Amino acid sequence: DLLIRIFSHMDPQDIINIRQCCRSLHEASLRRIVWIDAVHRIACGSKGVGMRFSTDRMSIHELEHVATAPHRFISRIRRALKRGDNFLLPISNRHLSRDTPSGVPPARLTMFRLLPGGQFLITTGSDCKLELWDL
């Protein structure tokens, strides 16, 4: 319990690093509450963005992935800057497909808005249809 309380004050990347010291720290770092607390700290520190997903159904691996995502993203930007890159290439590309009747071209999208948290995309088209995409 003491180790879990200590972990509740640490950054997620520090938890990853300290778990390599010994078996007891490693086992304590695999407790679900450690990563739920880390995700909540990351969400609270995001200046009002807040949490957009439920941690109740997430696995420990998913919680750890979410908690360490900001650090991984910033590290990727720093590596690109050190290499002298002018832009950052995407890790993956995903294309949204629209189910439309045969022969009817999809409407041109006129507005995109990514909601805070990054899970949902709102689009409108020239046909004035509002669509919500779960990414």
Automatic annotation (TrEMBL):
A Pfam family reported for this protein in Swiss-Prot or TrEMBL: F-box
CDD domains noted in UniProt: F-box_SF (cd09917)
Which residue range or ranges hold the F-box domain?
1-38
WD repeat intervals: 116-135
Q: Which keywords has UniProt assigned to this entry?
A: WD repeat
Q: Does the keyword Transit peptide apply?
A: no
Q: What is this protein called?
A: F-box domain-containing protein
Write down the species: Jaapia argillacea MUCL 33604
